[in-house]
Structure formats: structure tokens, C-alpha cells
Design a protein that fits this description.
Alpha-Beta Plaits; SH3 type barrels; globular; mainly beta; five-stranded antiparallel β-sheet; 13% helix; 2 domains
Length: 176
């Protein structure tokens, strides 16, 4: 009896993290819709304390309101656009913007650890390009926005014109 081989499945390995611009407060609806297609969708969230009339409650809110990151191939690119909450892909000129895997990992580190540190240094100056060399955010690069008691380290995301601010200890960073 002849052995039947399963047909080889062609896998498109050209997946990139594209950025969808969606109606504000519809990010999670869009994420559920996209995942129906078997496409990875990611919404970085931050926990915020919300005051209700009788109590306070922690709520997950999008870190970047109005944006959903999705990992799609060229073949899947247009298949998700039919939802009425999706406005368009974010573009730079006529070219769809994308976020690198490295930037997505940086956002995920910040989201999962949600750490605040204090920078106690006078050896750094504004606009210094820096890299974190230790701790859970090791490897992330960015620049210093300002130097004061509440020093900030900035992760720039130029494709969506946004930044993430976190506080960090001086011994955890180096200039690059």
C-alpha cells in the first residue's frame, strides 16, 4: 500500500508589524476582529486607576490610543480593512509604516515590567542617545528628554510619532 504524504503548505515568511489607525476606544474591538483572520494583533496597555462613583478600579487602557499593531504578510495586508472601526493603515508618504520586531519587544518590556526608576546623574545631558545596559529593559535605546529630579528616558516610535517616558537609574544606562 502506498504511503500518502501530506501536501506541503506554503508559508509566507515576510511578516511585518504594520500599524492600523482606528477609531479611539475601538482598539480592543478591532483586535478581536483581526484575530478572527488568524492574524496577530497587539495593543500595548497601561493600567490606570479610574474613579467610579462608589469605588476606584484599575483599567487597562491602550498605551497609544487609536493604534493597533498587527503582524501581517503582503497577502493578508488588505484582508482586515473591512471593519468599520478601522480608518486606515498608518503611512509615511504613500508607503505603509511598520514597526520593527525590536521596537515591539521594547514596548512589550515596558508594558510587562511597567517600572519607574529615578535618574540621579549629572553626567548625562538632554538629547543624549542612550542604551539600557542592565535590568529588565536591557538593550532598549532612546534619548533623554530632560534632566531634573524627575529625569526621563524616551523610547521614540517615529512611525506613529509617539514616545514612551520612563524613569531610570543612571547606572543602568550608557550613552551611545
Amino acid at each position: 500500500m502506498a504511503k500518502h504524504n501530506k501536501p506541503a503548505i506554503m508559508v509566507d515568511k515576510n511578516y511585518r508589524w504594520n500599524i492600523l489607525f482606528v477609531r479611539t476606544n475601538h482598539e480592543f474591538k478591532v483586535q478581536k476582529y483581526i484575530e478572527i483572520f488568524g492574524i496577530s494583533a497587539y495593543i500595548p496597555v497601561k493600567k490606570t486607576l479610574s474613579q467610579w462613583s462608589d469605588r476606584k478600579i484599575w483599567i487597562d487602557r491602550p498605551m497609544f490610543p487609536g493604534y493597533v499593531f498587527l503582524r501581517v504578510s503582503c497577502r493578508e495586508f488588505f484582508s482586515v480593512l473591512s471593519h468599520n472601526s478601522i480608518i486606515s493603515y498608518v503611512k509615511i508618504g504613500d508607503i505603509p509604516a511598520f514597526i520593527s520586531d525590536k521596537q515591539i519587544r521594547q514596548i512589550q518590556k515596558i508594558e510587562s515590567d511597567y517600572l519607574e526608576y529615578i535618574l540621579e546623574s549629572d553626567c548625562f545631558t538632554c538629547d543624549d542617545q542612550i542604551r539600557i545596559i542592565s535590568g529588565p529593559l536591557k538593550g532598549i535605546e532612546g534619548k533623554i528628554l530632560r534632566i531634573d529630579r524627575n529625569d526621563y528616558f524616551i523610547i521614540d516610535l517615529p512611525a506613529i510619532n509617539k514616545s514612551i517616558n520612563i524613569r531610570i537609574k543612571k547606572d543602568m544606562i550608557v550613552t551611545i
